[in-house]
TrEMBL record:
<dbReference type="InterPro" id="IPR003673">
    <property type="entry name" value="CoA-Trfase_fam_III"/>
</dbReference>
<dbReference type="GO" id="GO:0016740">
    <property type="term" value="F:transferase activity"/>
</dbReference>
<keyword id="KW-0808">Transferase</keyword>
<dbReference type="InterPro" id="IPR050509">
    <property type="entry name" value="CoA-transferase_III"/>
</dbReference>
<dbReference type="InterPro" id="IPR023606">
    <property type="entry name" value="CoA-Trfase_III_dom_1_sf"/>
</dbReference>
<protein>
    <submittedName>
        <fullName>Acyl-CoA transferase</fullName>
    </submittedName>
</protein>
<dbReference type="Pfam" id="PF02515">
    <property type="entry name" value="CoA_transf_3"/>
</dbReference>
Length: 448
């Protein structure tokens, strides 16, 4: 990603239309265009590999900004609340802290540390948190396997051991190449210049936003995406958003039967995209080395929150927490004169990392067709390093307006809705999927 004079430049050869700008302490709309541009360029390279002509690529800046929010609007019904009732920012004795409690087990960890019961609400949480030292509370919640982050300034993050570690990592960390002949696969022969990922099997072991964004993008260009979730995983606000184009199944990986089925799926997969932290990978027996040994054909793309080195490499995290940790929420508070943490207007770290993840997967797949298989690792915190190099948005710039665009009617299992048109245009390719958004667990844990 190319940052010059405090703004992102799109990859070379991409035409940008529109002028919409999300108001933020950093160049978020440029970030959206740049990240989408990387994914689009990777798809165009793959199409050329399959005999296509050099493609013209354009990205609508307004649409790119809007896709970094929610692409789907329900008609005649409502999505559930985005956040759990006690998730959010709280003032502590020496600053601010964010509690992420959307998952039931993360909520349980937070209320247990605070000495509250299951009936805790924002008022009761705030009354307890205000007496805590922020760092002590963050440490206690994390130790209880919950999710929390104190607000740090950019300077504090740069001086922090994890901030230094992440700054030293590459944006996309590529592993060593290994030889493998994928050219004889029947699935490979399904691909064409107009549908460059047709027949490619993608096993999606990600949740929340970044990984699902990546696999949704791959599905639009023909990939067969199989998403696996635990038996009890629920994420209702994002089901219509992130299950588009995917067969979604459930597996209990803690059971011998579920674990055995997962290995069967890996044996038939071309690309694995997962969001397991390094220690979780090791515990599952899914180290890069083990996967390469058992499944030499597999392109393995991994992403996490806080990076792959440093003392927080195994820490749970989400976009909103990384924004608190790395100085983004603090910068917004200063830029807009706010009295509390002021995050980005969208979950930009998630979305940008998702498109970069898709770009890495496509490039790695293209290289595997030539006999060389590689792994790649990305993280939200490392993606944030690029964003904080930029300057605040121009306050006079026009904001993207949803009503400017003709949205596409879409039927889901919850009811009708409207989907944004594509922000990316690649000549000779039409992004589409025949698999509607159906939510979690509707498919069998088997390749279609």
């Amino acid at each position: 990603m190319d940052v010059r004079n405090g703004i992102f430049l799109p990859p070379e050869g991409i035409t940008v239309t529109g002028a919409g700008t999300l108001p933020a302490a950093f160049d978020v709309s440029g970030f959206a265009v740049a990240a989408m541009g990387e994914a689009a360029t990777a798809i165009a390279r793959l199409a050329r590999h399959h005999g296509g002509a050099r493609a013209d690529i354009s990205i609508d800046r307004d649409l790119a900004s809007l896709w970094f929010g929610l692409s789907f609007t329900p008609v005649g019904w409502e999505l559930p609340p985005i956040w759990d009732a006690i998730a959010g920012d709280y003032q502590c004795a020496d600053g601010w802290i964010r509690l992420h409690t959307n998952a039931p087990h993360h909520r349980a960890a937070a209320v247990k540390v605070l000495g509250l019961g299951a009936d805790a609400n924002r008022a009761t949480v705030a009354a307890v948190v205000e007496h805590w030292n922020g760092q002590e509370l963050e440490d206690a919640v994390v130790a209880a396997q919950g999710c929390a982050a104190v607000m740090r300034s950019p300077e504090q993050w740069r001086d922090h051991a994890q901030g230094r570690a992440v700054a030293g990592e590459p944006l996309i960390a590529w592993g060593s190449a290994r030889a493998y002949d994928a050219g004889t696969s029947a699935r490979v022969r399904l691909a064409s210049a107009g549908r460059p990922l047709a027949g490619v099997r993608v096993l999606d072991l990600t949740r929340v936003i970044a990984g699902p964004v990546a696999t949704r993008f791959l599905a639009m260009y023909g990939a067969q995406v199989l998403r696996i979730d635990p038996p009890d995983w629920e994420e209702p606000v994002l089901e219509a958003e992130m299950t588009l184009g995917k067969h979604c199944a459930r597996l209990d990986l803690k059971s011998p039967e579920g674990f055995a089925r997962l290995h069967e799926l890996l044996a038939g997969a071309d690309i694995l995209i997962h969001g397991y932290r390094p220690d979780a990978l090791e515990n599952l027996g899914f180290s890069d080395e083990e996967l390469a040994l058992r499944y030499p054909q597999l392109v393995n793309i991994a992403l996490d929150a806080y990076g792959w080195s440093g003392p927080w490499a195994n820490r749970r995290g989400f976009d909103s927490l990384v924004q608190m940790s790395c100085g983004i929420a603090s910068s917004g508070m200063t830029e807009f004169g706010a009295s509390k943490p002021f995050p980005l207007p969208v979950q930009a770290l998630d979305h940008a990392t998702g498109y970069l993840c898709a770009a890495a997967a496509v490039d790695a797949w293209r290289e595997s067709l030539g006999g060389s298989v590689r792994t790649a690792r990305l993280s939200l915190a490392r993606t944030a390093v690029e964003l904080v190099l930029t300057r605040p948005s121009d306050p006079a710039a026009p904001a993207p307006v949803l009503g400017t665009f003709t949205q596409i009617p879409e039927e889901t299992r919850w009811g009708p809705g409207l989907r944004l048109p594509a922000a990316i245009r690649i000549s000779g390719l039409e992004p589409f999927t025949d698999v509607p958004a159906r939510g979690f667990g509707w498919a069998l844990p088997a390749w279609p």
